[in-house]
Amino acid sequence: MFSPEGPTLRELAVQALSSVERGYDLLAPKFDHTPYRTPERVLDAVAGALEPLGPFTAGLDLCCGTGAGLDVLARVCRERVTGVDFSAGMLEVARRRRAVPAGPAVSWVRADARTLPFGPAFDLVVSFGAFGHFLPRELPGLFGQVRSVLRSDGCFAFPVAAPPRAGSPGYWTLLGFDAAMRVRNALWRPPFVMYYRTFRLGDVGRALARAGFRADLHALPEFGHRPDGSPRVRLVVARRLARPPGQPAAGRVNS
Q1: Stretch 143-162: mean pLDDT, rounded?
Q2: Which domains does the chain possess?
Q3: Which of 60, 72, 74, 102 is most open to solvent, judged by the fewest CB atoms within 10 Å of its CB?
């Protein structure tokens, strides 16, 4: 599961008993050697799906971690790209390892995704693997923050994998992980919010609509299809609507 350069079991235990911010500060130097880092295959597929929708001028990688998503933004944005994360340790690694030698200007900002320190400066926001750190009730506010930093008709994009089939090894693995995290957070403070099964596509569509987006789904064919014919991985592409949040909107994701 981990390469020899990755964290030890003791280091993972210390991280898990810390806050989310402190935990990622500790994990940052070895994060790219763990399975938590977004695979290049996913990054390439998302960049390929976004290219026909662009070009974009300025892009933001929300909860950027060590900056893997900046490679996607650099492919589809012409002028500048920004990574934002609340972990100083992750941003330090990103600055050292994720500099884009040519192409758009790159900047890094330390901030909480729930209170973004930007105006409507971006026409593309992406995010990879970060939504498990937000409780379902936080999603409308989070998506509202994204909407606030997007220009008119801006785009918010992120990949979503289909849930594992009920009863499969993957299903029991994720169920067990989430159950362990709930027990940990009931017994230990500060909490470490990281759940795999709380980010459900139907709930996501409704939260996006409430925040002022129209969302469409794009299959990522590189990952194939499930036995029922549905895509294994989709890209959610949510367009910022001109209407203010709170006005009526359809609460579904269009396929």
Answers
A1: 95
A2: 1-37 (no CATH), 40-163+200-240 (3.40.50.150)
A3: 102
